[in-house]
Amino acid sequence: MSDALLTVTDLQKYFPIRDGLLIERTVDYVRAVDGVSFEIPEGQTLGLVGESGSGKSTTGYCIIQLLQPTGGSIRFMGKELTELGRSDLRRTRRDMQIVFQDPYSSLDPRMTVGDIVAEPLKIHGVDTRRGRQAKVRELLDVVGFNPGFTNRYPHEFSGGQRQRIGIARALALSPKLIICDEPVSALDVSIQAQILNLLKDLQQEFGLTYLFIAHDLAVVRAMSDRIAVMNRGKLIEIGPAEEVYGEPREAYTQALLSAVPVPDPVAERMRKRVILKGDVPSPVNPPPGCRFHTRCWLYERLGQPEDCRTIDPELRVVAEAAGHRAACHHADEALKTDVGVAHIGAAALVRRGTPPAALASLAAAGKPDAPEELATPAFLDEGGTPEATTAADGFATESPDQTDTPTDLQSPF
Ligand SMILES: Nc1ncnc2c1ncn2[C@@H]1O[C@H](COP(=O)(O)OP(=O)(O)O)[C@@H](O)[C@H]1O
Ligand code: SF4
Ligand SMILES: [Mg+2]
To answer: Measuring from atom 3 of ligand 1, which residue has the nearest CA?
Structure first.
């Protein structure tokens, strides 16, 4: 049996779609999470990436039991969470906390900073009032927030400061696992690095384990030991960060990585990116076969192979030693192309995932015109501003990102 702190197996969350005025009946389901499996060893970070609506937050909320899963298993610290009774679950919840995306809506505006951070301690009956006050000051100090401001209200502070308050609250019960659901997405770029550094420092200091959810691939890479990529409720690639960014094997992962800007101006001009065209398939009626095939550039390039249309690809091992798995019938073909290169932190023309021959010809060319073997295929753009890409997050997508922290969940404590 796995000795990971958290093991998620075949997790499902279907949201019912109801119809009928007098008598409501379920007419279908939104398959928000549809058979997701992964594990996180203690002290490590798993980065969970994917477009908006791919099921990342729902996965996180199911793990922390803010949402009841439809099916599957969640083992945390040796306990099966889906089978725990109410009081056992309450005790276990102390060990898993969440930091929400939006520090504006996730903090109660009517509560003082001190009360917000003390709330989980109070709910779990930890310490006396005086003891809690001392602990709150200690926690605020740890997250770099002035402990003298405990009597102030959240609206008096900037986004970065509010996220520090949210992190202090998450730390209050000394948890083992923290689910960070897009913790810096709502913050100014200049503030993001400070909060990421804080999360990293806290991980070191307290031996924390993170599920780090984000749609910004650069942010996830900076934080994660391993990366899991979600698309339409499924995990479609998982492996060590170096492997997934360096040798992405799934066409969707490659598309995401191809959209990440390169910090080198020459490489940036020559960057090949995939623009995902066509409508994002409905999570209610996903297409048969591979859910990505209606938008897959590799499917087009390979002449629309039948298996993509008829067989849902399983997550299979593509690099045994690294534990790298990908759900693509043509994962080996994907790696032979010039697409899907990770450019993050790249020096000069390092285009990870690109075949060495293509790399060499790019370097030799040293100019923005693509060499012949890099000719632009369907779905591929040669740089410039892609009409359907949100530049900052590196995603080629037409759907806007959701920034709201849900309000209809159970209490996280
Ligand atoms: N409470 C809900 N009821 C119905 N559908 C939902 C609910 N919450 C999320 N969804 C749907 O589930 C899918 C996954 O959503 P979410 O987990 O928020 O994605 P992500 O965090 O990756 O952006 C989306 O299609 C979303 O509309
Ligand atoms: S299985 Fe086919 S459609 Fe799916 S990602 Fe691979 S090539 Fe594309
Ligand atoms: Mg989300």
So the answer is: 15
Q: pLDDT of 108-145, one tens digit each? A: 999 999 999 999 999 999 989 999 999 999 999 999 99
Q: Strand order of the sheet with strand 316-319?
A: 96-99, 177-181, 209-213, 45-49, 226-231, 234-240, 324-326, 316-319
Q: Which atom of ligand 1 is nearest to the CA of 51?
A: 22
Distance in angstroms (rounded) separating the CA atoms of residues 134 and 117: 11
326: enclosing H helix or E strand: strand 324-326
Cα separations in angstroms, 27 against 16, 23, 24, 53, 69 = 7, 12, 9, 21, 19
- Segment 79-96, tens digit of pLDDT: 999 999 989 999 999 999
CA–CA distance, 152 with 115 (Å, rounded to integer):
10
- From CA 338, how far away is CA 107, in angstroms rounded? 45
Spatial separation of the C-alpha atoms in residues 299 and 295, rounded to whole Å? 8
CA distances from 60 to 91, 100, 141, 291 (A): 19, 10, 28, 22
Atom of ligand 1 nearest to the CA of 181: 21
DSSP 4-73: -SEEEEEEEEEEEEEE-SSS-EEEEEEEEEEEEEEEE-TT-EEEEE--TTSSHHHHHHHHTTSS--SEEE
Please tell me the pTM assigned to this model. Answer: 0.84
Q: What type of residue is 57?
A: S
The helix/strand/coil state of 90 is helix
User: What is the residue type of 84?
Assistant: L
Q: Which atom of ligand 2 is nearest to the CA of 291?
A: 4
Ligand nearest to the CA of 51: 1
**Counts for the chain of helices (H) and strands (E), in that order:** 14, 16
**Joined tokens for residue 334:** 């994907």
Q: Is the Cβ atom of 60 under 6 angstroms away from ligand 1?
A: no
